[in-house]
Amino acid sequence: MSNSQDNQLLAAGALDAGLAGYRFERDALGRSAASVFRLEALGLPTLYLKVEQAAPFGELADEAARLRWLKASGLPCPDVIAEDSDGAHNRLLISALPGRDLASASALTPFARVELLAVALLDLHRLPITSCPFDHRLERRLAAAKARMQAGIVDETDFDEARLGKSAEALFAELESRRPGREDLVVTHGDACLPNFIASEKGFSGYIDCSRLGVADRYQDIALACRSIAYNFGEALVQPFLDRYGMPATDPARLDYYQLLDEFF
C-alpha cells in the first residue's frame, strides 16, 4: 500500500481527531492480518492503529471485545482507546505495551522468552471458563474453518511444509475424520505464537492479537506455541517450555490436530 493510501486509512472516520499530531509508520506487530501502524508523538503515549477491510471475516471487533474482557479479568493487554467503521474499513486504536514481542525481544535469552510464554499461557489457562463469553470449542471452530474454506479465503500457499500441495478440502476432511474425542477446556489465546506476547527486560507485558481468544482445548495454544518455538529457536527449547508449563509429556496426535486446524485461520 502506498503512503497516500496509508494516510487515507489513518485520516478516515471518527478516529481522525484522536490521531492529530501523531506520526505513523507501518508495523509488523504480532501476526495480525490487519494493516498495523505504530503512532508516535512528542509528549503523547505511543499507540497502535489496526485497519482491516470491512468484510464478513473481519476480526477487529472480535479483538476489541476480547481485549476489554481480558483487561477486566486482570491480565495485561493493550487498552482499547477507540474503534470505528466507515463501511469500507474497520479501525481499532489501542495502547502500546512496553517491550517487544517474544520472537524479537533480543534483550532476553531464548530460554527466558520460552519461560515467559509458558507462564503467560498458564495465567491465561487458569481463568475460569465459566467467566469467558467466547466459545471456541471444536464444534464452532470447525464450522468457522468450513465457512472460511467455502469463502475461498484459506491460503493454501501458506500451509506448513508437511501439508503444502494439499487442498483445503483435503485438509478439512482430515479435520473431520481425526477429530479428538474429548476437549480439555481452558481460556485459550487462540493464536499462541511468540510474536503475540510482549515482554521487556522487566518481564511479561501482555497479550496482543487476541481476536481468537476463547474457551477451547488447551492444545489449541500448546500446539501453536510448540510450533512457534521450534521455528524461532529450534526444537531443543520445546521441552523446556513444556516442562515450565507443567506438561512434560504431550499427545503428538493432538498437537498435530490443532496445528492442522490452524491452517484454516
Quick recap of the structure?
The protein has 265 residues and is an alpha+beta fold. Helix content is 36%, strand content 20%.
Class of the largest domain in CATH?
Alpha Beta
Please tell me what the overall shape is: globular
Low-confidence stretches: none
Please tally the helical runs, counting DSSP H or I stretches of 4 or more residues: 8
Instruction: Write down how many β-strands occur, each being a DSSP E stretch of 2 or more residues.
Output: 10
CATH superfamily of the largest domain: Aminoglycoside phosphotransferase (APH), C-terminal lobe
Task: Return the domain count.
Answer: 2
Look at the helices and sheets and give the structural class: alpha+beta
Instruction: State the major sheet.
Output: 5 strands, antiparallel
Q: Taking all residues together, what is the mean pLDDT?
A: 92
Q: Give the percentage of residues in beta strands.
A: 15-25%
Q: If classified by CATH, what would the architecture of the largest domain be? A: Alpha-Beta Complex
Domain Aminoglycoside phosphotransferase: 30-256
Family: Belongs to the aminoglycoside phosphotransferase family.
Catalytic activity: kanamycin A + ATP = kanamycin 3'-phosphate + ADP + H(+)
Keywords: Antibiotic resistance, ATP-binding, Kinase, Nucleotide-binding, Transferase
Overview of the structural elements:
By secondary structure, the chain is of the alpha+beta class. It folds into two domains: 3-95, Phosphorylase Kinase, domain 1, CATH 3.30.200; 100-262, Alpha-Beta Complex (Aminoglycoside 3'-phosphotransferase, Chain: A, domain 2). It is 36% helix and 20% strand. It has a five-stranded antiparallel sheet, covered by helices on one side. A three-stranded antiparallel sheet has the order 6-8-9, covered by helices on one side. Strand 1 (23-26) and strand 2 form a beta hairpin. Helix 3 runs antiparallel to helix 6 (219-233) and helix 6 (219-233) packs across helix 8 (252-262). The chain is globular. The relative contact order is 0.15.
